[in-house]
């Protein structure tokens, strides 16, 4: 297109367009390249850092030459995490350095930037950040997870160096409930990794500019883009852009919104114009339409880009790009979730926004976050719930591009907060919505991790209605069922391990299910132990299960809780990656509840979720095929086919057409033979998929495999390269039972970060590491110096292995780089619809387990709890034991009661059992006094002095009276370690 045509077309539109109106143009003759009107500098490289709190470190004259040189993302807790055993009882690793540190950045802007506006954006800092420019205090942010920014323009110098200083504090109170006001800054929720642990950018733009979506401090809104009236043939696209005129005079401004498709072709545009006075903010609003739009599906997440352009006298002066996904959706209380009219079951994970990585902590380059998303995508995920604070900007982008329906919170612990805590939370919720509201992957705003008061719910809805009035997203709070105040405010029930829906008129999505734990290194009970069953802390573990059992339970929990329920939207497996938060296993330095471990090596559970959830034919034989002669064991196969045939050395062992839990095929008492085991997945008598596993030979070598970002290993001071270390046989096959120490050396410009051993303390950041189940993974971090790095690995009895890596130079001038953090691009794929779904029982709306006493009952333990009526002798006491009540006191007869699972006698959760009293009622608790009485029982209930015998165990009877509408919350059976053999408590209710 010629400039003459462009000008004539522009003049034509000026003649037809009135102020505040917009007109549509077609794309055939319009330039299809983004305008380059503003600069986004990568501000991550080359900071000075001190793990101390000296006076006057904000001043330009302060001498920081002796400080360390680092690059962001950075944490000062990378070397003191994953190094201590979990404390158990849902307490994480707490021994991490906490205190105040300083960062200083020396930089100089080019003369060409003088006269322009300069803003700094921090994607977040943990936990409290005070920011200074050239000695001037700009402000403070203490959310820890929400982006924030400042206007640097008035304080910058162009004739000399500028110094940006950030004071960071990550301290916290000992107990999360008392950690006022920042209750979410505690390892109960996230490891307390302090630092500038996400990206930092400088935005340089014209004084007439589209504002940034940084509400904290700047109180600017950026753009707001959404689609409406969506069909296969058309979608209306609405573009709103807040514009600030910081010139000294009024400007006549032309605004143009251009819509580019995934391939980069311009498909629609709209224009309008306005006179904007000096110092004025004005929001442009336009509407256009996209013909025959490519819709955003979880299985085909097609993305558009909206470029908003400001022009003066026909010349572009500023532009800004906004993501756009065109999609419709519906959450139906009886039929589940629909994406563009297509029924889709949501399955995925909860994930901590710290995403802690052994050896690296929470400070990860964006491509490593992308790497984790690729694994979740490979395992069949299409849903993520960030818990309990917001994910990073890069990760929300990844939700868009990989097709993950996102449940997005602001910041929260697990409480109904008041005073300063609530003020910070609701402000952060507003900041979060302004920043993320354009992302199509976000379908639900999470108001909090606990129920709120009516006043707080109204504030949450006011924020949504003000800043996302056209998003049509739902809002819910996890554990909203603990308060009647929730009714009338939430629009979706966010459950937690719930077996019964608590809001019959709302759709239901699960936020945390399958919270059991198992380390990757323990195959099964027929394989050699690796410091697990033999661990001195094993009796303190809530969970004593193998990787095989953990993988099978993933199938059972999914199918029984969500998969088989036609009305259930789906939910989040808790969690995807092992981390140091809230572990219940004291044999581990991590909470081992992930499908991958803390360096993202997959467990068997990764492959079983993949076998259930991927739409293509899938099959997975759980475990390995290297046993001792004479071994006889059950072989578990998970497949999304109708049946499975199992072969050993090409001889058919058995055929199974009757899976349990929808996908789990069990072959009993299979005799091991060296060679090959093979499984075939069958649909309609046709083999759709095959997997084979072979017996590996003796270890003969170490194999080193590097993993780098899509643009290679960058010498920016914070990029990471991974190296997989495998023990292999003569044919190059991994030896699944191999273990033992490997020693490393490193030469060249890099920092060794190492890896970890999940069952050993102090295993991180060493130049040695144990192999686990045949493999482990280590990391090295780049410096600002590029060059060749050589890593060698040795294990006794094997040849030395060596790998060479090159870190590539990054152009950094005066503290600034234009190369932005790397991520994987061009990842769009279109997945088929599921090849086969097990039969789902018919759902009859309105049929629920009703109780007039135990209303909104929920249970978050590992086992299944049930409401039961008419307690008397002969009734079963537990859901998982054949123990009946025999002689019971007269006053308990005819009561309703909750049949709990005895297997949860050593499980602890703050909100393990909850209900709202439907009327004034007596509550009785039967408690095994060989177990230390939990706090809730001692503080809220009175020992009646009566006892009841359940089998051979004597239970004490406790009592209290509850008023109608009162919320009753009970924690675990004991706040501390419970005896090896003990009984779970039982709850009984009777009308007052």
TrEMBL record:
GO terms for biological process: carbohydrate metabolic process. One of its GO terms (molecular function) is hydrolase activity, hydrolyzing O-glycosyl compounds. Keywords: Glycosidase, Hydrolase. Residues 333-470 form the Glycoside hydrolase family 2 catalytic domain. It comes from the Bacteria. Residues 712-804 form the Glycoside hydrolase family domain. Residues 231-327 form the Glycoside hydrolase family 2 immunoglobulin-like beta-sandwich domain. Residues 44-203 form the Glycosyl hydrolases family 2 sugar binding domain. Residues 630-686 form the DUF4982 domain. Belongs to the glycosyl hydrolase 2 family. This is Glycoside hydrolase family 2 protein. It comes from Hyunsoonleella flava. The lineage of its organism: Bacteria, Pseudomonadati, Bacteroidota, Flavobacteriia, Flavobacteriales.
